[in-house]
Amino acid sequence: MDAAIAGGADIVDLKDPAKGALGAWEAAALAAAVARWRALPPGGPLLSATIGDHPLEPGALCAAAARVADSGVPLVKIGFALSPATGPETLAACLAALAPLARAHRLIAVLFADLGPDLAAVPAFAGAGFAGVMLDTADKRAGGLRAHLDDRALAGFLAAARAHKLMSGLAGALALADAAPLAALGPDYLGFRGALCAEGRTGALDPARLAAVRAALAYAAAA
Ligand SMILES: O=C[C@H](O)COP(=O)(O)O
Asked: If exposure means fewest CB atoms within 10 Å of the residue's CB, which of 109, 120, 168, 178 is most exposed?
């Protein structure tokens, strides 16, 4: 957390990469991080946290999301493992169960580009009261986001999010070289983890790598 703040991250995402794509922090560590974040001077980063990797099962998603939301973290990231095999009733049941939580907390739906999600599901998240949608990848060894979705698909996803007033993000094994082309598509944020670590995704953040991504995003924003 300290390295991300020092490196100028706009959003610090609390996740345990050793536990999976959206591995969750333990409750005590999460509460401590939220308390430290609240004590930061104004103008600091926003804070998000992931709820862990769960199947598309309403009870499991609700319990995990409620636990993270109860910590007071302002953005709660919930992975939806949508694939071509997912029936519409499965997503509908999950969203119906999460809608009450979405009325009290800012929930972000994470879809995994490498699982082949139906990007036409974006309006359903808006309908359930979500605050945002983003793309990520589930299998970090299977290539980055742009290996799974081309610019046209990504632009369509972002346009749908904008049309439904959802915050939008792109992530998924992004490299430094992805910063400019993806920023050009106009997401609200880009998410990086592996590219910021000298010794792999589960390692510590490397200030030099963080600075390089920060500089690339600043350059892209000024272009
Ligand atoms: O939320 C963002 C992603 O999980 C970042 O991780 P990654 O860059 O290692 O894919």
From this structure: 120
State the complex-level ipTM. Answer: 0.95
Whole-model pTM: value is: 0.96
The range of the structural domain enclosing residue 214 comes to 2-222
Query: What's the CATH number where 34 sits?
Result: 3.20.20.70
Give the C-alpha separation, 28 to 50, whole Å.
Answer: 15
- The rounded Å distance from CA 106 to ligand 1 centre is 20
Please write the tens of the pLDDT for every residue from 31-48: 999 999 999 999 999 999
Considering 19, 77, 140, 165, which one is annotated as catalytic? 77
Active site residue 15: yes
| Distance in Å, CA 96 to ligand 1 centroid | 27
